[in-house]
């Protein structure tokens, strides 16, 4: 089932500032889908439009294969900004208020508090929580009413390393329960570790989308180095099987043609009387793909 489909979704401000430009996305049930892009790329504007907060300039979108409606919005939980709760109330009281606003039963609140790891601080006022704890409570709030889809905008923004790991693991756990998650972030590591599908956007335009494995295309990168890096680079630039060379500190990163292997590189350099001190094959990272696409 297609949970969300956008068709040429666009938003322009002041007639000449294009925030989102003809964006086409398809998100299937059960996907943990990441929208990855640098700051100012149109991620938050996109989320605002599909949630009905911002009116599109043109284009359209469907939720659950139907036109958006009040009924469909009840099937969605979202966090777009900094968590905002009553500071003098504890976790349970704050979640009860959210349940009241959503007009749903609150009998699952203890279960949600346990899920987000706040059972030990359930009676503490919200004002005493760390930023990571506040974010986890916000996730519990988004889960009130058992929505089918969860939307998060930069969920680990401003968190310390421990808070980032806690929120990341929580999102993975929620995804494993069958929820569809849409996550917007500029943090490459976050998307790569949490999401199974990704769309890379810049200046509001979609550059590439698909499963993480499809986007990365499993294209291997070969690292090679020697004492004389300049000489090594000059020789490899003339090798018939080398497609491209990227220098990273004291390492050269090579893309080579299909049918060739690291042993061909080693043999080629040996015949040129060049001794290498480093030869390693690694898979292409989302970071590499992201930088290549956005540059």
Description:
- There is one protein chain.
- The protein is of the alpha/beta class and 295 residues long.
- It folds into 2 domains: 2-216, Rossmann fold (3-Layer(aba) Sandwich), CATH 3.40.50; 220-294, Alpha-Beta Plaits (2-Layer Sandwich), CATH 3.30.70.
- The chain is 34% helix and 30% strand.
- It is built from 11 helices and 13 strands.
- It has helices at residues 43-50, 70-73, 91-102, 109-115, 131-143, 161-176, 188-194, 212-216, 229-236, 262-271, 286-294; strands at residues 2-13, 17-28, 32-36, 58-63, 76-79, 149-153, 180-185, 197-202, 205-211, 220-225, 242-248, 251-256, 278-283.
- The strands form 3 sheets. A 6-stranded mixed beta sheet has the order 5-6-7-3-8-9, with helices on both faces.
| Shape assignment | elongated
Q: Which percent band covers the strand fraction?
A: 25-35%
Structural class: alpha/beta
The major pleated sheet works out as: 6 strands, mixed
Tally of DSSP helical segments: 11
* CATH architecture descriptor of the largest domain: 3-Layer(aba) Sandwich
In short:
The protein has eleven helices and 13 strands. It has 295 residues and is α/β, with parallel strands linked by helices.
Search tags:
single chain; about 300 residues; alpha/beta; Rossmann fold; Alpha-Beta Plaits; 2 domains; six-stranded mixed beta sheet; four-stranded antiparallel beta sheet; 11 helices; 13 strands; about 30% strand; elongated
Question: How do the helices and strands line up, and which of them pair or pack?
Answer:
Blueprint: E1 2-13, E2 17-28, E3 32-36, H1 43-50, E4 58-63, H2 70-73, E5 76-79, H3 91-102, H4 109-115, H5 131-143, E6 149-153, H6 161-176, E7 180-185, H7 188-194, E8 197-202, E9 205-211, H8 212-216, E10 220-225, H9 229-236, E11 242-248, E12 251-256, H10 262-271, E13 278-283, H11 286-294
Parallel strand pairs: 3-7, 3-8, 5-6, 6-7
Antiparallel strand pairs: 1-2, 1-4, 8-9, 10-12, 10-13, 11-12
Helix pairs in contact: 4-5, 5-6
């Amino acid at each position: 089932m297609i949970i969300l489909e956008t068709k040429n979704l666009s938003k322009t401000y002041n007639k000449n500032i294009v925030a989102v430009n003809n964006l086409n996305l398809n998100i299937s049930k059960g996907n943990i889908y990441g929208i990855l892009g640098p700051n100012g790329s149109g991620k938050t504007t996109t989320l605002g439009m599909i949630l009905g907060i911002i009116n599109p300039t043109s284009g359209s979108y469907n939720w659950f294969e139907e036109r958006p409606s009040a009924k469909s919005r009840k099937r969605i939980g979202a966090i777009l900004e900094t968590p905002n709760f009553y500071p003098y109330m504890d976790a349970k009281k704050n979640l009860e208020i959210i349940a009241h606003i959503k007009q749903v039963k609150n009998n699952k609140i203890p279960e949600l508090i346990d899920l987000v790891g706040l059972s030990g601080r359930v009676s503490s006022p919200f004002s005493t929580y760390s930023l990571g704890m506040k974010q986890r409570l916000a996730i519990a709030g988004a889960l009130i009413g058992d929505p089918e889809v969860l939307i998060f905008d930069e969920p680990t923004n401003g968190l310390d390393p421990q808070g980032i790991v806690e929120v990341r693991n929580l999102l993975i756990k929620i995804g494993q329960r069958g929820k569809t998650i849409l996550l917007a972030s500029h943090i490459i590591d976050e998307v790569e570790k949490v999401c199974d599908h990704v769309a890379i956007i810049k200046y509001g335009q979609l550059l590439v989308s698909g499963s993480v494995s499809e986007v990365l295309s499993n294209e291997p990168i070969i690292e090679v180095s020697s004492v004389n890096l300049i000489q090594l680079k000059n020789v490899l630039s003339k090798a018939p099987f080398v497609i491209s060379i990227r220098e990273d500190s004291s390492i050269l990163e090579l893309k080579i043609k299909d049918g060739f292997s690291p042993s061909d590189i080693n043999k080629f350099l040996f015949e040129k009387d060049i001794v290498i001190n480093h030869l390693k094959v690694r898979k292409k990272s989302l970071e590499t793909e992201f930088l290549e696409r956005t540059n």
